[in-house]
Specification:
With 160 residues, this protein is α/β, with parallel strands linked by helices. The chain contains five helices and six strands. The C terminus is likely disordered.
């Protein structure tokens, strides 16, 4: 049975709200994993797991609990790479699926940007989540959720 896992520490509020509604509509267990207490609306389909503080503790918990075919919502590229390696799916809050075909490019760009920051080159952070990003996320999630009824998702490589 499909489950959705959410890297809850950095997930934008608007994306959480989309996930709350989608969990109810699709009747799919959605678990938010974070190192802080998360308050969720009452629902049999929503669950929060609080993990200890620490580097990648929430990520490790998600990977430990993950089943083949599950969906993970995360902007964390190394976590997405682990999810894909475990035959699951990873979707970022901007509506882009990480795939076998694009994860290495994402990891390379992430590592390059880390090197720039380490060498004291000023880099800007990610752009603010736009209405188009929220709509792209909701559309990709809606397209993915039919897998619960044994319909294979049509994953789009939505590179920007």
């Amino acid at each position: 049975m499909l489950r959705i896992w959410v890297d809850g520490d950095a997930c934008p509020v608007v994306i959480k709200e989309i996930l709350y509604r989608a969990a109810e509509r699709a009747k799919v267990q959605t678990t938010f994993v974070a190192n802080k207490l998360l308050r969720l609306p009452p629902s049999p389909y929503l669950k929060a797991i609080q993990v200890a503080q620490g580097f990648d503790v929430a990520d490790t918990k998600i990977v430990q609990e993950l089943n083949t075919g599950d969906l993970v919502i995360t902007a964390d590229i190394p976590l997405a790479a682990e999810v894909i390696a475990n035959n699951a799916h990873a979707l970022n809050p901007r509506g882009e699926f990480y795939t076998q075909e694009n994860i290495q490019e994402h990891l390379s760009m992430r590592n390059f940007m880390e090197e720039l920051r380490a060498s004291v080159v000023a880099t800007s952070g990610p752009n603010t989540l736009s209405a188009a990003d929220r709509n792209a996320f909701a559309a990709q999630l809606d397209q993915f959720l039919p897998i619960k009824n044994n319909v294979q998702p049509q994953l789009k490589d939505t590179q920007r």
